[in-house]
């Protein structure tokens, strides 16, 4: 070998080593930058959530603003929480504007972006822009509708039609799935149970009958649609000409949340709006209780073990070694957050205007949406899909390491080979589960309803478990013939937070009494 050739080989070897070392440096820098950036904004976000739970809206808003200013913060997600703070502060117009804008923006972000998808394969699922989980997107529409009813109500009818479209679309999906399952069962029965004397024949007519009689059951994941249907019923009921639409929306409440419908059937709740007796209107008392579940990281251990076995086999038999699977495969799961008071802890007593004495028994609250149940249902429905994405990402990363070694002709068990494996381990370890979520959503939404003669009334809200003065709030309300009046309060932990809001036929913002 000539000196020139030897020198060329040395230069090539140095280039390959330099390229490999550069790749390792990039991975390490990515780990440090990404982890640091995420931790900074998330720490401030957690502080905002904690202060909201204590009822200190100003400190919560300050911490949230600090989080929004951090590098790589999730702007859209934090804007959703800002909308809840606006609502609690009594600024329903600004809250509605936020929810309306964010709903449109998140619907756009829900579309798949090739660049983001490729980036997520090289990092983790957080590289994809936050567009909200399925139930969170439904809740954005609910909050937009609710804030409109508490404000000028100009867009409430349009929101109610959008809610109906969302419910109809979901109902169609469930019906098609049930019909498909029913058809499969019918075909199986024909194949398994034929006899020489009689064979069941599936005709188009019998198929249609079977499809129409299919037992379509909603999932707990669909509970936000129960709130959509409830609010839509109230909106539609103020127009007597829309009797059929009101009836359909009321039936949908029970379909999306059967437990709430059973409560409605046993309690003396009264009718909606113009469906009340002549001279009467409806009072709806809506409590936003607790804080939505936070999402935490969970290790998919069987998947991790399978990957470990696979990469050890390839390392033992292949030309190059693979980074050992040390970091487990991560997915997100929901976990209840904070101290949520149980259903029935809040009582509402109705009495004559400016009278401290109630004239009837306390209204009975029932849960229309339990977001702890909804989040668990969402987790179970999408868990396999999330694991599949995580496995694909991990395999691609291991494949990239193998290709790098092959392209650079890295010798097995060399120093550079070891360095690349270490960098590969770090690359895999930087993966985090996508725990982004709308934290200031309530954990539960409870509703009580009563039919009252038109006029001025007093509604007293109190906690059954507390005798503190702050735990009792008296709100003057006005009931209008054939219309709906709404009282909305937020109870993130053990006490009222912010303002008690009155809207609909009445429209007021009542500061919480100290």
Distance between the termini: 91 Å
State the helicity in percent bands.
40-55%
Topology order in helix (H) and strand (E) letters: HHHHHHHHHHHEEHEEEHHEEEEEE
Task: Give the amount of beta strand, in percent.
Answer: 15-25%
Write a brief caption for the model.
The protein contains 14 helices and eleven strands.
What features would you describe in this structure?
It is a single chain. With 514 residues, the protein is of the alpha+beta class. It folds into two domains: 11-154 and 291-429, no CATH class; 162-264, no CATH class. It is built from 14 helices and eleven strands. A six-stranded mixed beta sheet has the order 5-6-1-9-10-11. Helix 1 (3-53) runs antiparallel to helix 2, helix 6 (134-150) runs antiparallel to helix 7 and helix 7 (156-192) packs across helix 9. The model is unreliable at 26-37 and 192-214 (pLDDT under 50).
């Amino acid at each position: 070998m000539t000196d020139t050739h030897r020198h060329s080989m040395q230069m090539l070897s140095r280039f390959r080593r330099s390229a490999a070392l550069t790749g390792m440096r990039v991975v390490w820098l990515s780990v440090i930058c990404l982890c640091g950036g995420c931790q900074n904004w998330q720490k401030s976000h957690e502080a905002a959530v904690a202060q909201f739970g204590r009822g200190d809206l100003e400190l919560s808003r300050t911490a949230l603003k600090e989080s929004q200013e951090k590098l790589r913060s999730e702007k859209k997600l934090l804007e959703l929480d800002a909308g809840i703070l606006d609502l609690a502060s009594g600024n329903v117009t600004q809250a509605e504007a936020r929810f309306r804008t964010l709903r449109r923006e998140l619907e756009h972000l829900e579309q798949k972006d090739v660049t983001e998808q490729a980036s997520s394969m090289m990092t983790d699922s957080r590289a994809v822009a936050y567009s909200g989980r399925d139930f969170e997107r439904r809740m954005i529409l609910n909050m937009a509708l609710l804030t409109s009813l508490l404000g000028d109500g100009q867009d409430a009818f349009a929101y109610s039609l959008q809610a109906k479209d969302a419910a109809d679309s979901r109902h169609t999906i469930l019906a098609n799935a049930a019909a498909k399952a029913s058809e499969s069962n019918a075909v199986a029965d024909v194949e398994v149970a034929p006899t020489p004397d009689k064979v069941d024949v599936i005709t188009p007519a019998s198929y249609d009958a079977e499809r129409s009689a299919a037992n379509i059951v909603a999932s707990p994941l669909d509970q936000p649609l129960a709130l959509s249907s409830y609010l839509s019923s109230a909106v539609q009921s103020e127009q007597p000409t829309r009797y059929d639409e009101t009836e359909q929306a009321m039936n949908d409440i029970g379909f999306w949340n059967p437990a709430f419908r059973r409560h409605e059937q046993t309690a003396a709740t009264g009718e909606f709006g113009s469906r009340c007796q002549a001279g009467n209107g409806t009072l709806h008392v809506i409590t936003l209780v607790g804080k939505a579940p936070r999402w935490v990281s969970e290790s998919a251990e069987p998947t991790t073990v399978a990957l470990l076995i696979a990469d050890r086999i390839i390392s033992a038999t292949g030309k190059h070694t693979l980074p050992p699977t040390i970091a487990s495969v991560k997915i997100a799961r929901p976990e209840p957050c904070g101290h949520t008071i149980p259903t029935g802890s809040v009582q509402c007593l109705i009495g004559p205007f400016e009278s401290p004495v109630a004239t009837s028994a306390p209204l009975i609250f029932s849960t229309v949406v339990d977001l702890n149940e909804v989040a668990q249902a969402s987790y179970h429905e999408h868990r396999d899909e999330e694991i599949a994405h995580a496995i694909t990402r991990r395999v691609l990363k291991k494949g990239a390491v193998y290709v790098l070694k092959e392209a650079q002709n890295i010798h097995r068990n060399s120093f550079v080979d070891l360095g690349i494996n270490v960098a590969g381990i770090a690359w895999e370890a930087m993966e985090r589960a996508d725990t982004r979520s709308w934290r200031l959503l309530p954990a539960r939404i409870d509703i009580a309803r009563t039919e009252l003669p038109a006029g001025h009334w007093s509604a007293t809200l109190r906690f059954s478990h507390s005798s503190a003065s702050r735990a009792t709030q008296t709100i003057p309300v006005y009931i209008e013939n054939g219309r709906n009046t709404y009282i909305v309060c937020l109870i993130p932990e053990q006490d009222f937070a912010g303002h008690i809001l009155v809207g609909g036929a009445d429209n007021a913002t009542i500061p919480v009494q100290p």
